[in-house]
Amino acid sequence: SVTDGVQVQVSRIPDGVAEYSVWGLKLPSLRQRLFRCVAVRENDDGTYAITAVQHVPEKESIVDNGASFDPQPGTIHGTVPPAIQHLTTEILAEEGQYQVLARWDTPRVVKGASFSLRLNVAAEDGSDRLV
To answer: What residues does each domain of the chain span?
Structure first.
């Protein structure tokens, strides 16, 4: 299971994972990626910590021969949407009509990215309802 953006927790060390070995990781929402094991450390609680870096087999050719290389998107859907930062909303009310203006920044631009916004309000019974 993925525990955060950079760590994956498994119940046992996958077969073939040893220092300097190359191994693949495939998750349902991600394309398979190759990693090179840098270190394997046993923790005090009997678990293991594996430090690895992403392995790109054609990297040597890229460096030595100046080959062109277009990295593959990380997800099966093509691209990872950029994180939303500095989200602000402004609510304008006029004659029983409401308009919400949302603004945000993204750390990078992704060509063709679009965002869908959902506005939920608290209903009289305390639940949320979609507006």
So the answer is: 1-79, 85-130
